Amino acid sequence: MSALHFSVMNLHAPANSIRLGPALNQARGVVILIHGRGSSAEDILGLADVFGRDDLAFIAPQAADHTWYPQRFLAPLAHNEPALSSALATIDALVGEALAAGVPAERIALAGFSQGACLALEYAARNPRRYAFVAALSGALIGPTDTPRDCGDLERTPVLIGCAEHDAHIPLEHVEHSAAALSALNADVTKQIFPGSAHTVFPAEVEWLRKQAAVAAG
């Protein structure tokens, strides 16, 4: 592999992550928190406070230039490459690190906001297995709604897809499609549609996360 190709395909790096809580080999569960466009690992790590647990390890990766992929999430997949593949590889490396430390997949959770929410759902759909939970806070699957999806089994993983009804960044059509697509992958989907247009984390989503904290801890 040439040096140029390596640099292009590794736009994001798992090493650029912030961690909170116990070491992976001492944690009851792991939550990977994925920030949105223009935000940071430090910012999304503040979400760890809502779980109210000191036995979970939290990992927040940092996107290069604070952006996981350049175009909107609903653009054709090719338009977001190679950044999208690099972003997915970063999440995969962190999941792999947790597995190698002895944390079973059913105690590994993914949660993201906005662009990070889209990435969390996309990773789970492409890597189906039983997770502790997957939470998409104002997000949807990446790509047009007619994007082909391989079959797979999420084994009743609890999945939250939340969004405001008139969110300017996340069309409701994509939220509805994502809920249906993930249900078809055997996820236990909770869809929360909120009135208004706020692009934010809603109190009902926080409540859902708190309830799932016990699942992540086993």
Describe the structure in your own words.
Helix 2 (41-45) links the parallel strand 2 and strand 3 (56-61). 32% of the residues lie in helices and 19% in strands. With 218 residues, the protein is α/β, with parallel strands linked by helices. A seven-stranded mixed β-sheet has the order 1-3-2-4-5-6-7, with helices on both faces. The protein has one domain: 3-Layer(aba) Sandwich (Rossmann fold), CATH 3.40.50. 43% of the residues are buried.
Key attributes of the depicted protein:
218 residues, alpha/beta, Rossmann fold, 7-stranded mixed sheet, globular
Strand order, largest beta sheet:
1-3-2-4-5-6-7
- Which class best fits the helix and strand makeup? alpha/beta
Measured on Cα atoms, how large is the radius of gyration? 16 Å
Q: Span from first to last CA?
A: 41 Å
Using the coordinates above, name the CATH class.
Alpha Beta
Task: Report on the biggest sheet.
Answer: 7 strands, mixed
Give the full name of the CATH homologous superfamily.
Alpha/Beta hydrolase fold, catalytic domain
Q: Can you count the helices? A: 6
Structural domains: how many: 1
N-to-C SSE string, H for helix and E for strand: HEEHEHEHEEHEH
Care to give the gist of this entry?
The chain is α/β, with parallel strands linked by helices.
Q: Layout of SSEs?
A:
Blueprint (H helix, E strand, L loop, with lengths): L2 H7 L7 E4 L8 E6 L6 H5 L10 E6 L21 H18 L7 E6 L1 H12 L6 E5 L20 E7 L7 H13 L3 E7 L8 H15 L1
Parallel strand pairs: 2-3, 2-4, 4-5, 5-6, 6-7
Antiparallel strand pairs: 1-3
Helix pairs in contact: 3-4
